[in-house]
Amino acid sequence: MASRLNPYLSFDGDARQAMEFYERVFGGTLALNTFGAFGDADAPEADKIMHGMLETPSGFTLMGADTPPGMEYTPGTNFAVSLSGDDEAELRGYWEKLSAGGSVAVPLEKQMWGDVFGMCTDRFGVPWMVDISEPAG
Predict the structure, then answer these.
(1) Does pTM top 0.85 for this prediction?
(2) How far is CA 64 from CA 5, 68, 78, 86, 97, in A?
(3) What InterPro entries does the database record attribute to this sequence (predicted)?
């Protein structure tokens, strides 16, 4: 799979409604994963969206999620640019360059869903998410 670059939106508890709205606007295939599916199914946020992805017939990709517990939701800055794919060397190279001189919110390391993932803000204040999946095959 080639690496992909797309917007990633954060929501304040209404990610499901927002992503379903974008699906109606753009068409395509929407996949939603809840916090409960990857953690405590009885937690208050279990039905909230941990990760959603809309892929459209026009080739658009839009990702989004509810802001996790303990993280601040700030309207107007509720986005990041997502880099994802399975070329580990390429994506680690991007991570190293993007995080240099910036700040790291989540170190680039293996996560509970199986991918290597990290979040940083570059030296210009742009937030980035890097997700390295296992190669298909």
Answers:
(1) no
(2) 14, 12, 10, 20, 24
(3) Glyas_Bleomycin-R_OHBP_Dase, Glyas_Fos-R_dOase_dom, PhnB-like
